[in-house]
Structures are given as C-alpha cells and as structure tokens.
Design brief:
heterodimer, A: 513 residues, alpha/beta, D-Maltodextrin-Binding Protein, domain 2, MetI-like fold, 9-stranded mixed sheet, 3-stranded antiparallel sheet, 12 strands, B: alpha/beta, 6-stranded mixed sheet, 9 helices, 10 strands, 26% strand
C-alpha cells in the first residue's frame, strides 16, 4: 500500500519533469518561428502602431494614450498589465509587439534586458504630480508649498539627477533624509506601486526610488513621518479616496478622468512616454539555470520575499480556516435546526442570504470590497485578508458540514433525543462527531482550495507567496524560475496537508472496525 | 391499578396521508402490552407518538398525569422516563459500549461519571457482556447490539419501555436472546409497550394485546381471548396469515 503510493509519487514527478522538458523544447521551436515572423513586422516609429498588439501598464498614461488606437479599423489591440514588468515579459516572449511606458522606466527595463530597445521617436510628453483627496485642500496647499521650496533650493533637481541624470551626475549624490527634523505633525501615508523603476521599486526588500525620495523631502519640510503602502497601480486612487492613504505618488500624470475622482498637486517632474520593442539585431544571451537560480533567489537575499510571503500565506490560511470552521459550524447548525425543527426562521433566512451572496461572487471581489469599502479604517492587511477569506470559507464549510450532518442516519438523532438529550446535546455529542468523520475529505479539500485562494491577496498589496514571487519577477525580469518556485511551494504544501489528513482519517475510521 | 399513560383522540397525518385517526388507550403501571397489526397500519407511529418523536396532529397524551403535548412541558425530562428501543438498534458507532450506556445519564445530569460507569458495568454484567464494555458497536453481533440498546435505555431508570419492532432486524438465531431479556424485564414488573411481529412472544409474555388497523385500535384484549376469539374479520384474516 505504502510502496504503491511512493511509486505513484515518483511517477508523478517524472511525468512532470518530462512535460516541462518537452514543453521547453516546443517553446524553443515556436520562439524561433515567432522571431522570424516578428522580424517581418518590426515597429520603427509611432506610425507603425496601428494593427499591432500594444502592451501598457493598466491605468498609466501610456494606457490613456494607447486607448486612442484601440479598436480602430486596422485591428489594434491594447493589452493591459498590472505591472510594467509583466508587459515587458510579454514583449520578450512575443505575446505583444511593443510596450508604451515612461522613458525612465523604459531605460531601466532596457538596461536589464539587452534584447529590448527604445525607439528614438517619443510617444508623448507628460507631467507627474501627487494625488490628494479632493476634500483635503489643506494638505494639497502644504505639499505645494514644500514642492516650491524644494524646487527653489535644487532638491528636486538633485533627486532627478541621482536617478535619471546624465552619466556624470547619475548615482552620485543621493537625497538623504534629514535627521534633525522634529516630526510632530503626524504621519503622511503614501500609496504607491513599487513596480515602476526608477520612480518606485523594491531594492533589498525596501521600496525606494525618485518618488520616495521626493516624498521624503516633502515630509522633511512638513515635519511629518513618511509611511509607504504598496499596492496595484489602479488601486492607488481608490486608496486615497477612501482614506486608506493620504497621498498617491507613483509617476502619475494629471488626466481629466483622474481629476473626476481626485485632486493633484503641482507637478514635481516631467517625463516622456516611449515605445519599447524587441531589438532583433541582438539575439539575447540565454542565462544558465544556475545563474538564473542565483539571480532569483540568492542575490540580495531575494529568497526572503518567498519566505516572508509563504509565512503570510500560511498565517492567513490558518486563521481563515479557524474562522471558517467556527462560523461555518454555526451556520450549519442554524440551517439544520431549521430543517429539522423549524426553529430560528429569521436567522436561517439571514444565513441563506449570506451563503447565496458569498458563493455567488468571486473571492477577489469580496476581498476588495472588504478592504476598500467595509474595513476602511483597518490598516492591518493580514487581518483584513484573514477576515475576508474566513468569511468566504465559512460559506463553503457551512454547506459541507450541513451535508455531513444530513448524512448521519436520522435514527442516531432519534436515539439521542429518546434518551432525554436535548437538541443541542444530541448534535454535539452524537451527530457532529460522526458528521465530521464523514466530511473530513471534503473539508480538507476546502482548505486546500483556501490555501491556493489566498494567492489573490496581492490585490490589496499584501505580500503573500504569489506576490513574493511577483516581486522577484519584477526585479529580475524573469518569469520561468520564480513562477515555478512559487508553484512548487504550493504543491508541496498541499501534498503535505493531504497526507496529514489521510492519517487523521485513518485514525478516526478505527472506531468503525 | 395506577394509570401511567392515557392517549385521547390521537390524530397524526403526514401531509394528506392520515395515519392515526382518533386513537384512544389507557396503560397502567406494570402492564406488558403487545401492539400487533398489518404493516402500514400506524402501530409504529402510535408508539413514536408516545414520546413525541412524532408530534401528534391533534389529541392529548397524558404521562403520569401530565399532558405532554402541552408546549410548556419539557419533553426532554419526560423522555428520560420513557426508554425506547429501535428496530435498527441505533447504537452510537463512534462510542464504545460503555460510553453508549453512560452518555445519557451523565449528560442529563442524572448521575456523575463514576456512578454511571458503575451502573453500566452492572447492566453489562447482567446480560453477560461485561467483556464488551470497551468494544465499539461494529464489533458486536446484532443480538448483542440490541441487548445493549435495551440496557442503554434502562440506565436512565425509565418508568416505561417502548419497543419498536425490536427483533425485526435480527438474524433468526439472535431473536431468542433479545426476547429472553425482554421476558426478564416483564417478569420484574417493568411497564412495556412492544410493537412486534413475534406472535409467540405476544401470546406468552404480554398481559394485553392491541390490534391496530386503519389508524385506530380495533381490538384490545388479553392474549388468550384475542387469539382464541378474534371478533373482527380483519383480525381473523391477520391471524390466519401470521400464525
């Protein structure tokens, strides 16, 4: 029995390896073909854009302008990515023809991806500003005042030179946070999207960049403490509007659409949007697997993103499971109580509405609603995720437990009641222990689903395992290794969980033999 | 004689299907009553109504002077005094034999755990199954299961025992041991109401036999008289089939 299982595990691993190897070969072949095709259709300037697949980062200026091309007669399509990195990766593997993005970001990308190049012809020119909630004019005025001072004393120029200046000034004179400032005017919470170098990006586990330095300088002037919140780019405005953050600074351009929901300070820098394409003159040098592993995990201790993320994933799952079981059991008891005795009809109705709503909407939408609409005053993202996933899981667990209770022979219930036990005692002492045994596999399955479901935590900027992998991906511009690593960690965890439950199940079954 | 149970005008319907149509009966302490009748006649429903496992559609049931169909009566307290034995035994498969017997006395606050354990062992010793105290129900034969189900009910010291076809699910060679235990109980003066197809047992042990048909009690007589002189043609027909 045990041997058989080991053999089947080994077989599964071998099969997996074979599939990956086969796929890699197939990929190599198709890449060659795609390359030849793409060469024929090379983009050399803005006039070549119609009819192509344009990649942009969702919600950025590039997105706004690319929209003008979308759906024209020549069939131009715009692919919107959550991150600039994703767009660049898509370009590298030939899923899109070009990426429209901020010039400084583009330069950072191209520097690390030698097979890409920036077209000389600019796409547009734009100004960046900080967004503030419309009602918060006082803060806006204060920031404008600080920006004015920073412009006059050359600090803004210093920051811009450090990150994006010409060869002789770049990287030479960084802005240093003032130490002797009294910070008694509270915290300034800044929402950003650390996927946008050189304005904001992760370096050694910290969010850094031109926008971060600029905001630090503003805080130094205002006597405030800077607090940074990382989230998806298209979530920044919502976060500022809902009061989750005071300001948003993420290389944002003032657009008419944005002005409808949010206000902007004066511009602190300007930038150009450019087009990145594949440079077919240079064929990319492939990294060896060893180099790749080193780059993705060892260098700068990048494995810590995965480790920390995995810790968060486990933490969220564990507590969500607890909420799920407790709340699910309560709901199941109310529902079966109503089915058997007709008791608590109002509560039963509420439970049914709850089940319908939770099971009828996607978990990611529930998570966003709970974070941005319901629990706006809660800043602990893990707590929000635990609540959201717990509430979600409870609905599924409730139905699993209910089916388990229903599956216990009615005679057991009658025997308990006929002995003088009340409904509650009968349920707790007789029915539920038998029900749990019946539903253990289904319950375990539910929790495995939950473990994987938490991978959407990144939507609220929480670094879980998936997000940890994403951050590595955004630093190394490599999809293959980080994604497989993340998948492997999930797989192993799930297999361990399943094995544990099998053991438990066997022990529980003993009483019936 | 002390009156223990009185049923007045008991009606019970499941949806449109009328099962009991105005049933009346009085039971005195110490009586052993066998309830016989064709299948589907309502004899099980009648028995299950006595401890309100089935809620009557209308009618009253008095137990020791109290109308237990009254909403204000704590039915759990009443059930403590009415032991019930089921056709399918309904032992709790997740508990040992000892735990099965101890559960209700302890949970209902009648005994402390130690007392209940002593009581369980006494009862098990009585039926010669003390060595099975730690076993799970799945390790027992049908006859053993049913005898344990009977002493599980006895552990609550009930005033009346209700048996719902206690031998119908047993292999023929195990019927004897269960009937033997019931015979002993009857001899000790326990009030019993037994729905059964065992005519031999009814004739020999019962002090009174009810013939239920068409939702009511059609004949109510002592065994000798009932078997020797059935008054209604329906009972004659029934006896001709089962004897």
């Amino acid at each position: 029995m045990k041997k058989k299982r080991i053999v089947s595990y080994i077989a599964a691993v071998i099969l997996l390896a074979a599939v990956i190897a086969g796929y890699s070969y197939y990929k190599g072949q198709t890449e060659k073909r795609q390359l030849e095709e793409a060469k024929k259709n090379e983009i050399t300037g803005v006039e070549d854009l119609p009819g192509r697949k344009i990649g942009v980062q969702m919600g950025t200026t590039g997105d706004t302008y690319a929209k003008d091309y979308e759906g024209d007669e020549s069939g131009t399509s715009v692919e919107r990515f959550n991150k600039g990195t994703d767009a660049v990766q898509a370009l590298k593997v030939g899923k899109i023809d070009c990426v429209i993005i901020d010039i400084l970001t583009a330069e950072a990308f191209v520097e690390k991806n030698k097979e890409l190049k920036i077209l000389e012809e600019e796409f547009t020119n734009e100004d960046y500003a900080i967004c503030v909630d419309k009602s918060n004019t006082e803060l806006k005025e204060k920031i404008n005042g600080a920006l004015q001072e920073l412009r006059e004393d050359g600090t803004l120029q210093q920051i811009s030179d450090y990150y994006t200046g010409a060869e002789e000034v770049k990287g030479k004179n960084p802005y240093r946070m003032m130490q002797d400032v009294k910070r008694d005017n509270g915290t300034l919470s800044m929402a950003t999207n650390a996927e946008f170098p050189p304005y904001e990006y992760f370096d050694k586990g910290e969010i850094v960049g031109a926008d971060v330095d600029m905001m630090q300088a503003v805080c130094d002037r205002l006597g405030m403490t800077l607090e940074i919140q990382n989230m998806e780019f298209d979530a920044i405005i919502t976060a500022v509007e809902s009061g989750k953050a005071d300001v948003g600074a993420a290389g944002m351009t003032v657009t008419e659409d944005r002005l409808k929901s949010i206000d902007f300070t004066d511009s602190y820098t300007n930038s150009k949007q450019v087009i990145i394409v594949k440079d077919f003159a240079l064929s990319a040098k492939k990294q060896s697997l060893r180099e790749s592993l080193y780059d993705n995990f060892i260098k700068d201790n990048r494995y810590e993103y995965l480790l920390k993320g995995f810790g968060n994933t486990l933490l969220i799952t564990l507590f969500a499971v607890l909420i799920g079981i407790l709340l699910g059991l309560l709901i199941a008891l109310v529902r079966t109580g109503y089915d058997r005795n007709g008791s608590m009809p109002v509560l039963n109705l509420l439970c049914r509405i709850y089940l319908t709503v939770v099971r009828g909407t996607p978990a990611v939408v529930q998570l966003l609603i709970i974070y941005y609409v319901i629990l706006t005053s809660v800043h602990n993202k893990i707590l929000v995720a635990v609540i959201a996933f717990g509430l979600n899981s409870a609905a599924y667990v409730a139905e699993v437990i209910r089916s388990g209770i229903m599956s216990v022979d009615i005679g057991q219930f009658e025997a308990g009641r006929s002995l003088g036990l009340n409904y509650h005692q009968t349920m707790v002492s007789i029915i539920i222990p038998q029900a749990v045994k019946n539903i253990l596999p289904a319950l375990c399955n539910e929790f495995i689903v939950l473990l994987k479901e938490t991978s959407i935590s990144g939507y609220i900027g929480l670094m879980d395992l998936t997000k940890g992998g994403d951050i590595i991906r955004s630093i190394t511009y490599e999809a293959y290794v980080p994604l497989y690593a993340v998948a492997l960690i999930y797989l192993v965890t799930v297999m361990l969980l399943s094995a544990g439950v099998n053991c438990l199940e066997k022990r529980l079954r003993k009483s019936e033999r | 004689m002390d009156e223990l149970i009185e049923v007045r005008d008991l009606y019970k319907s499941f949806g449109n299907h009328k099962v009991l149509k105005g049933l009346n009966i009085k039971v005195s302490k110490g009586e052993v009553i066998a309830v016989i009748g064709p299948s589907g006649c309502g004899k099980s429903t009648f028995l299950r109504s006595l401890n309100l496992l089935e809620r009557p559609t209308s009618g009253k049931i008095f137990f020791e002077g109290t109308d237990i169909t009254d909403e204000s009566v704590d039915i759990n307290k009443v059930r403590e005094k009415m032991g019930m034995v089921f056709q399918q035994f309904n032992l709790f498969p997740n508990m040992t034999v000892r735990e099965n017997i101890m559960l209700a006395p302890v949970k209902c606050g009648k005994m402390k755990a130690e007392e209940a354990a002593v009581k369980a062992e006494e009862l098990l010793a009585r039926i010669g199954l003390l060595d099975k105290a730690g076993a799970y129900p799945s390790q027992l034969s049908g006859g053993q299961k049913q005898r344990i189900a009977i002493i599980r009910a006895l552990a609550m010291n009930p005033d009346v025992m209700l048996f719902d076809e206690p031998t119908s699910a047993l292999d023929p060679e195990m019927v004897g041991e269960v009937l033997e235990l019931m015979r002993e109980l009857a001899a000790e003066g326990m009030t019993m109401i037994v729905v059964t197809h065992e005519m031999g047992f009814a004739r020999e042990v019962a002090s009174r036999i009810l013939f239920v048909n068409d939702g009511g009690i059609q004949e109510d007589n002592d065994p000798k008289e009932l078997f020797a002189n059935p008054k209604t043609p329906r009972l004659k027909e029934f006896l001709a089939k089962v004897l």
